[in-house]
Amino acid sequence: MQEWNLENILADFENATAEDWKALIDKQLKGENYNTLISSIDDNIIIEPFYTYENSLQYQLNIPQKENTDWLITEKIIVDENNIALANQDALDSLNNGINSIVFDLRHKDFSAEQIKILSKDIIINIAPIYFLNSNIDNKKSIIQAKQTHKFTTYLLADLLMQSTTTKSNVVLFPIPQHYLLAIASLNAFRWLWSKLHQNSTPIIIAQTVLPTVINDENKYLLYNTTQAMSAIIGQCNHLIVTPHQDNNFGKRMAKNTQLLLLHESNFNEIKNINKGNYLIAHLTYQICEKVWKMVAE
User: Fold this and answer.
1) Is the pLDDT of residue 1 over 50?
2) Is beta strand 130-133 parallel, antiparallel or unpaired with respect to 143-144?
3) DSSP states of the chain as a string?
4) CB atoms within 10 A of CB 73
5) Rounded mean pLDDT of 99-128?
6) Average model confidence (pLDDT) for the chain?
7) In whole angstroms, what is the distance from residue 213 CA to residue 197 CA?
8) Residues 243 and 75 sit within 8 Å (Cβ to Cβ)
9) Which pLDDT tens digit goes with each residue over 14-42?
10) Is the whole model's pTM more than 0.90, yes or no?
11) What are the φ/ψ torsions at residue 232 (nearest 5 degrees)?
12) pLDDT for 218
């Protein structure tokens, strides 16, 4: 009996070229313009109607990969300079309940070395890393973030990369685009672009979900968080912050549980380089790199 594996199944079909697929589509269109099937997203990033292996060869990039498939479930804590001990206690409580890493938002306030010591008290930073957002001190634990909100993902990447050339840190806060495939491609592109600017370092990417400002159904916030988290993980972020959909303990718990489900139920950490071989994502990544590299070069 013949063994039914993928190679045997594919052997029953004739090889089809890009021209063959194009001819079949033109036939189905019955005179309609093929170009109506071509769409664009973000900063005029083109999506073709179909992709083939032959076409993909012209936009393959050697994108650096993470050494492992895990990510750290991260929480952002806003620090009140008048109650530093409370922020430290919040961090310890979170670390004891499923959180792996902490981002302290210092809100551009001045903190002494003694205050930072209180803030990080009893946190084993070799196991649970801590980083500082909106810090007035430039060091390896400071987080690079965009100077402003950008309409296009390409401008966001250019902003982050330019700032990375003037800081000691390699830790980057990456707002996740809401378009699923664009988010994956933009993270791929960022790692490739970083490798061209900083050949001797690797970025630590802290991805963060971005919720719509206006939405009628609260449950949709959970869907936005989940799909953005999935794209960030597939795009190989190092840390992930899921923004709570409510500013209370319930919102924080749901944000944490979203990641726990993706980790322990969906097993997103068990597949290495999950988007490898996806011609569409490779094409999007190539276009983003091309556009952003021109911006940075200028």
Assistant:
1) no
2) unpaired
3) -----HHHHHHTS----HHHHHHHHHHHHTT--GGGG-EEETTTEEE-S---HHHHGGG-------SSS--EEEEEEEPPTT-HHHHHHHHHHHHTTT--EEEEE-TT----HHHHHHHTTT--TTTS-EEEES-SS-STTBEE--SS--SSHHHHHHHHHHHHTTSS--EEEEEPPSSHHHHHHHHHHHHHHHHHH-TT---EEEEE----S--S-HHHHHHHHHHHHHHHHHTT-SEEEPPPSSSSHHHHHHHHHHHHIIIIIS-GGGSTTTTTT-HHHHHHHHHHHHHHHHHHH-
4) 22
5) 97
6) 92
7) 34
8) no
9) 778 889 999 999 999 998 999 999 999 99
10) yes
11) -65, -40
12) 80
Residue 10: the pLDDT is 60
Tokens of 261: 């489900």
**Phi and psi at residue 130, in whole multiples of 5°?**
-125, 145
| Dihedral pair phi/psi, residue 78, rounded to 5° | -80, 130
Q: What pLDDT does residue 6 have?
A: 53
- Provide the token pair at 195: 């490798």
Strand 72-78 with 239-241, pairing: parallel
Segment 149-167 shows an average pLDDT of 95
Q: Which two tokens stand for residue 136?
A: 């007035």
Q: What tokens does 205 get?
A: 């990417």
- Amino acid type, 236: Q
